[in-house]
Amino acid sequence: MFGLGMPEILLILAIALIVIGPQKLPDLAKTLGRAMGEFKKSAQDFKRSIDVETTVKDIKDINLPKTDLKDILKEANTKEEPVSPVKSAADSGNPEPPGNPVAKDQTTGESNASVTDHTKN
User: Fold this and answer.
1) Cβ distance 79 to 72 under 8 Å?
2) Domain containing residue 78
3) How does pLDDT run along the chain (121 residues), one tens digit per residue?
4) What is the SS3 assignment for 104?
5) What angle is formed at CA 115 by the lines to CA 112 and CA 121, rounded to 5 degrees?
């Protein structure tokens, strides 16, 4: 801090002790400590207020589209949903989506890969 080492600080304290006197030095140190604390507190408050102002400015700079809820609902109701192959297969009664190579046996519900051929017996 300011390039002061331990010998310089001791010299300053010795001069302060001689100039101010031993009875007023503790009061002066207490007052100086409180002043430093207030200064730090003020600096932190200033920094915090600058951060808040910067955040508010950034939020105001964001351009949000101004749409009404009624417009959003109209738009959602007028759009047609694209039909996926899975949904169209489920609507038609076929439980498997098209293009599935393993179909299920209708009687047992097992896939063809695990069903044994009963006609060979």
Assistant:
1) no
2) 69-109
3) 568 888 998 898 889 889 988 889 889 889 999 999 999 999 999 999 999 999 888 887 776 666 677 777 888 888 766 555 555 555 555 555 555 555 555 556 555 554 455 555 4
4) strand
5) 130
Look at residue 55 and give its three-state secondary structure: helix
Answer whether residue 119 is part of any domain: no
pLDDT value for 107? 59
In a domain, 79, yes or no: yes
What distances in angstroms separate CA 90 from CA 10, 84, 93, 102, one per listed residue? 88, 10, 5, 17
Domain identity same for 56 and 82: no
Q: What is the dihedral of CA 81, 85, 89, 90, to 10 degrees?
A: -50
Q: Are residues 74 and 105 in the same domain?
A: yes
Which residues, 6+ apart, have CB-to-CB distance to 85 below 8 Å?
97, 98, 99
Is residue 117 assigned to a domain?
no
Number of domains observed in the structure of the chain: 2
